[in-house]
Specification:
The complex is a heterodimer of chains A (217) and B (250). Chain A is an alpha/beta fold and 217 residues long. Chain A has one domain: von Willebrand factor, type A domain (Rossmann fold). Chain A contains seven helices and six strands, in the order αβααββαβαβαβα. In chain A, β5, α6 and β6 form a beta-alpha-beta unit. In chain A, α2 packs parallel to α7 and α4 packs parallel to α5. Chain A is globular, with a radius of gyration of 18 Å. The mean pLDDT of chain B is 93. A five-stranded antiparallel beta sheet of chain B has the order 1-12-9-6-7, with helices on one face. A five-stranded antiparallel beta sheet of chain B has the order 2-3-4-5-8, covered by helices on one side. The chains are: A alpha/beta (217), B alpha+beta (250). Chains A and B meet through α1 of A and α4, β10, α5, α6 and α7 of B.
């Protein structure tokens, strides 16, 4: 008997690895910076799709913030993800953006639970070149609470011009400063890191790769 | 006439561990005892624990030896349950003893543990963490004895070495006439069970149970089981270490 021909498998959905990109598209980001960010996003899309498991497991959502917060991309698996072309204009409503990102994750987890889909700890990856122009108090509180409860891993990256001290107050993890416009290297790293998580087995705490090549030390 | 058991079991390295050069961190052990009793154990070492393979080996060996030494087992259900909990505690103590002797943190030896005792009249199982034990009864129905215990996230579970592991353990006794039995680690979970309920997928188990029931030569059967776990159909669905123990009564 050829067992591999005789045995049928249960059809379970792949476990999901949700990742929210929270992107600053205020006026100061326009021009060179946003072009480099767009290029980075395209690379992110291509890179994730080279990994057979990751493209079915990693889910991406994109929220942009200027004067307003916009859901540019609802959660989709990487194989359905198409990098958007972002433009910069407006102020920096970071506080509202953080709240909406955390809400989005909460809703997504609920959808997973209702559909019996397993999931990994969600990531939020915030990129900004400024400081919040709105009230960020509630967002800060929520990040601290959610990190403490291990409900989310919230990362922040400052692009040239970002108020790194303010960022360090907002997020629990040490924010990283982008070296020049190395968005490509940043997204390559993000793709590799999240692929690592999406392949991780039970009990594995996946150590993040050092952010060599894109972060200032 | 007292029934007897025949068992085969294989643990294979997952493709992700092959890539990274890690050893197989799953382990299994079993023994046939007098009066038609089979005792079996499966453990899955934690991917993040450097000595998980050793921890898993100690856990299964201790569990099987402890039960063998306690044979014959009590018939009363509450005494059976207490005994199984003692076996888990004993396995944990053995792992702790090694951690102390080698002066390493206990969590470096983290693994799950499933212990199963099958007699002609019942199947008892105790489990910490994920993986599961499934039985086929004489009337053909396929019944889960244990179900995987996971945390909120897909890469989380409880280990024998975790704090409160024993208070979170499942201990179940199923009364009936077992025909076949399967014990497996979490690598096969998504293929074998309907998740998250943990209901056995019949088209997965039926051919495997038929296979072990009809197998004539253990060496040949073991090679077939090994080939199955290494077949592309399986490895394209899971890159984790895999353990599958199959037993049939005759």
């Amino acid at each position: 008997m050829r067992l591999d021909e005789a045995v049928e498998f249960a059809e379970n959905p792949e476990p999901r690895c949700p990742c929210v990109l929270l992107l600053d598209v205020s006026t100061s980001m326009s021009g060179e910076k946003i072009n480099a960010l767009n290029e980075g996003l395209r690379l992110f899309e291509a890179d994730l799709n080279q990994d057979e498991l990751a493209k079915k497991r990693v889910e991406i959502a994109i929220l942009t913030f200027d004067t307003r917060v916009k859901v540019v991309q609802e959660f989709v698996t990487a194989d359905q993800f198409a990098a958007p072309k972002l433009k910069g204009n407006g102020t920096t409503s970071m506080g509202e953006a953080i709240n909406q990102a955390l809400d989005l994750i909460q809703i997504r987890k609920q959808v997973y639970k209702e559909n019996g889909v397993e999931y990994y700890r969600p990531w939020v990856f915030m990129i900004t070149d400024g400081a919040p122009t709105d009230n960020v108090e509630e967002g800060m509180r929520r990040i601290k609470f959610e990190e403490e409860k291990k409900r989310v891993a919230f990362f922040a990256v400052g692009v040239q011009g970002a108020d790194m001290n303010k960022l360090a107050e907002i997020v629990v993890r040490t924010p990283l400063k982008l070296k020049g416009l190395s968005f490509k290297e940043l997204f390559q790293w993000l793709s590799a890191s999240i692929q690592g998580v999406s392949h991780s087995q039970v009990g594995e705490q996946v150590p993040l790769k050092p952010p060599t090549g894109w972060a200032e030390v | 006439m007292t029934k007897c058991w025949r068992a085969i079991a294989a643990s294979v390295t997952g493709s992700s561990h092959e890539k990274s050069g890690q050893p197989c961190q799953d382990a299994h052990n079993y023994r046939l005892l007098p009066n038609g009793v089979l005792v079996a154990a499966v453990a899955d070492g934690a991917g993040s624990a450097p000595l998980a393979a050793i921890g898993a080996q100690i856990a299964v060996k201790t569990a099987v030896e402890t039960i063998s030494n306690l044979h014959p087992l009590p018939e009363n259900e509450s005494n059976l349950r207490l005994l199984l909990l003692d076996v888990l505690a004993f396995a944990r103590d053995s792992v702790e003893a090694v951690a102390k002797t080698d002066n390493v943190p206990l969590k470096d030896l983290a693994s799950t543990l499933i212990v199963v005792v099958a007699t002609p009249e019942n199947v008892q199982a105790a489990q910490v963490g994920d993986g599961a034990a499934v039985v086929r009864s004489g009337d053909g129905s396929i019944i889960p004895i244990t179900t995987p215990v996971t945390g909120e996230y897909a890469n989380e579970t409880i280990f024998l070495t975790s704090p409160h592991a024993l208070s979170l353990a499942q201990v179940n006794v199923w009364y009936g006439t077992p025909a076949q039995l399967a014990v497996f680690s979490d690598g096969l979970q998504r293929l074998a069970l309907k998740i998250p309920e943990g209901i056995p997928h019949k088209p997965f188990f039926s051919p495997l149970f038929k296979f072990v029931a009809e197998a004539e030569d253990d060496t040949v059967a073991l090679a077939q089981l090994h080939d199955f776990l290494k077949s592309p159909r399986v490895t394209s669905r899971t890159d984790d270490d895999l353990t599958l123990l199959l037993a049939t009564s005759f």
